[in-house]
Design goal:
This is ABC transporter ATP-binding protein. With about 240 residues, this protein is α/β, with parallel strands linked by helices. The chain has a single domain, classed as P-loop containing nucleotide triphosphate hydrolases (Rossmann fold, 3-Layer(aba) Sandwich). Helices cover about 35% and strands about 25% of the residues. It is built from ten helices and ten strands. Helix 3 packs parallel to helix 6. The radius of gyration is 17 Å and the shape is globular. The structure holds adenosine-5'-triphosphate. Adenosine-5'-triphosphate (ATP) binds next to helix 1.
Length: about 240
């Protein structure tokens, strides 16, 4: 695990004094896509929030490139190269796409223009809508704006909380294609997904969470092939 870009070691975290996640350990290497799957209430979002600095860890450590980020404010975690896209309220709906991207570049004002250009090359559809309020876009387009805002930080790791939630099947496929595209630019991805099969299809590795603990970590192909995992967490392939 020492070569991991992001290391999560024995992390316990939750809300107030109550832990929801217990002793979670995982790593994300440079260039990897890792999907976290598991039933509702397993603690997936809670763990992601702790990694992003939104929640405090009651135990354990989180490191990015070897530097401890556990219990540091989200702004510092972002400056160290980790961008977080929450499941909800991930764009400013009253603001235009352009304004959202500019706000996303807060970490380094000097690079807003060039980073914005890179985001627009990645998501050309957004260029047409630069002057449109994010609230007037489709759910899929809005998700691209949220990715775009996160990429304005020029992250080495992108955390995505259920990026396909609420999207039509066509948009779900586009969203996963976008995740692959972002990853191909060298950004590692740690994402939570209910669409477990599709997520594992584009992932290098998968993490199974249940009851606040990490139950299993394996290559995505191994999880997809496992009868146990399939029966418990994947449902049937469409
Ligand atoms: N803001 C909160 N305050 C207190 N408890 C919370 C809060 N959010 C979640 N929880 C508790 O943490 C548990 C785990 O929630 P979490 O959102 O991490 O699960 P999840 O695996 O991401 O599942 P889901 O897909 O339902 O979001 C929930 O069952 C709930 O009891």
């Amino acid at each position: 695990m020492s070569e991991a870009l992001l290391e999560v070691e024995n992390v316990s975290t939750g809300y107030g004094k109550i832990d929801i996640v217990f002793g979670a350990s995982l790593g994300v290497a440079a260039g990897e896509i890792v999907s976290v799957i598991g039933p509702n209430g397993a603690g997936k979002s809670t763990l992601l929030k702790a990694i992003a600095g939104v929640l405090r860890c009651s135990a354990g450590d989180i490191r990015i490139k070897g530097e401890t980020v556990a219990n540091r404010p989200p702004s510092e975690v972002a400056r160290l190269g980790l961008a977080y896209v929450p499941q909800e309220a991930n764009v400013f709906r009253q603001m235009t796409v352009d304004e959202n991207l500019t706000i996303g570049g807060w970490v380094d004002r000097g690079h807003v223009r060039e980073r914005r250009e890179r985001v627009l090359e990645l998501f050309p559809d957004l260029r047409v809508h630069l002057g449109t309020r994010a609230g007037n876009l489709s759910g899929g387009q809005r998700q691209m704006v949220a990715f775009g805002m996160a990429l304005m930080v020029a992250p080495s790791v992108l955390l995505l909380d259920e990026p396909s939630a609420g999207l039509s099947p066509k948009m779900v496929a586009e969203m996963f294609a976008a995740v692959k595209k972002v990853n191909a630019t060298g950004v590692a991805v740690l994402m939570i997904e209910q669409n477990a099969i599709q997520a594992l299809d584009i992932s290098h590795r998968g993490v199974v969470m249940a009851g606040g603990e990490i139950a299993l970590i394996d290559d995505a192909s191994a999880l997809l092939a496992s009868e146990n995992v399939s029966e418990l967490y994947l449902g049937t392939r469409r």
